[in-house]
Amino acid sequence: MTKADLKIPSPEELKAIVGTHLLWTKTPAKGKRGELSYCALPGIDLSGLDLHGMVFTGADLGGARFDGCNLAECDFFGANLSGAHLRGAKLTRAVLRGARLAGTDLEGADLHEADLREGVLYRHRGPRRPGEIETDGAAEGEMTNFFRADLSNAKLSGSVFKGAKLAGAIMANATMVDADFTGCDMTGVDLRGANLSRTNFTSARLTGAKMVGVSIDKTVFTGADLTGLMPEDLNQVKGWARDAKFDPPPVNNRDNFPAVIAAHEKWLQSDGREGRQAVFERADLSGLDFSGKLLRLVVFRRCSLSGADFGDARIFAVDFSGSDLRQVRFRGAKVSGGRFDGADLTGADLAGCRIAPLPLAGGGGQIATSFRSARLSRSVFAGADVLAGDFSETALAGTGFPFRG
Question: Which of 79, 186, 215, 278 is the most exposed place for a label (fewest CB within 10 A)?
Fold first, then answer.
C-alpha cells in the first residue's frame, strides 16, 4: 500500500476522534476509543495528551510529536514513526510490532513490557479478498534514540536497532532473541536477566553494561566493546565473547590482596617513600572481612565487594566509587571523608554508623563523605550519626536516614 492509499482525516474529524477518546479515557461509557488506523498524520502534534489505548495500526506518523504522552497499551502495529518525537512518553505494554522507528526520539520513554517484535500487517479491502502486505519484517529502529529509556521486560525478538542510541537504557528481563544491535551505543545499559539468544552485538559499545543473569546462546559479540564491566558481569559473558574487547585483568585482586595491603601500610608509614598505595579497580573482593580494621586512603574503584564486612571498621578517605556494595555490613563503622559516588549500597547495613567529614591537617579544610548518585534502596541507617555528607542525586526515602534540621 502506498501513502496515497492512506486516509487523511480533516481537522474536524481528527479533533472529534481525539476528543471522544480523551473522554473515553476518563469515562468509557461516555466516550469512544480512538481509531486512527491507516491514516496519514505526518507531523501531527499531540504532545502531553492521555491517549492510552488508542489505535494507530498502519498509520503514517512520521515526524509526529508525542512528547510526554500517555501511550500505554496503544497499538502502533506496522505504523511509521520515523523521526517522531516521543521523549518521556509512556508506552507501557504498547504494541510496536513491525513499526518503523528510524531516527525516532524515545529518550527517557517508558517502554516496559512493550512489544517491538517483527510483524506482518495485512489490510483487507473487502470480504474474501487477499490482504495487502503493509509491513513485512522486523521492527526497525536504526539510529533511534533510546537514551535512558525503560525497555524492561520488553519483547524485542527479531527487531533491528542498528546504530541506535541505548546508553543508560534499562533492558532488564527483555526478550531479545535474534535482535540486531550492530554498532549501537549501549554504554551502561542494564541487561540483567535478558534473553540474548542469537542476538547480534557486532561492534556495539557495551561499556559498563550490567549483564548478570543474561541468557546467552549463539550470541554474537564480534568487535564489541565490553570494557568497564564489573567482575560479576565480566564472569557472565567473557567465555562467550572471545572476539570482543575487554579490560586487561586487574593488577590487584583477591589473590594478592594481603601483599597489596602490606605494601600500602609501608606507604603510609613512610609518607610515600616506600611501598605503594593500595588501588583496586574492578577487582572481585566480595565477601571479604574488614571488620574492626583501620583503612586509610585505600582505593576500591568499581570493585565487587558485595557481602563484605566492614563492621566497626575505621574508614578514612577510602574510595568506594562505582563499587558493588550490596548487602555490605558497615554497622558501627566510623567513616570520614569516604567516597561512595555511584556505588550500589542496596540492602547495605549502616546501622549505628558514624558518617563525618575528614579534617585536613593544618586547618586546611575538610574532605566530605560523598554518596552522590549512590543507590541506597533497602539500606539501613537506623541509629546512624550523619554529621555531614553529600547525598545529592540520591534517593533516601525508606532508608531510615537520620535527617537533620
Answer: 215
CA–CA separation, 286 vs 306, rounded Å?
Answer: 5
Q: Is residue 333, in this structure, part of any structural domain at all?
A: yes
Q: What is the pLDDT of residues 304-323, one digit of tens each?
A: 999 999 999 999 999 999 99
Residue 268 is assigned to a structural domain of this protein: yes
Does some domain include residue 261? yes
For residue 186, being part of any structural domain is answered with no
CATH number at residue 318: 2.160.20
State how many domains the chain has: 1
Report which residue type is found at 405: G
Share of the chain above pLDDT 90, in %: 80
pLDDT (0 to 100) of residue 282 = 92
pLDDT digits (tens, 9 = 90+) for 108-161: 999 999 999 975 544 434 433 332 333 344 555 668 999 999 999 999 999 989
**Containing domain of residue 324, as a range?**
254-405
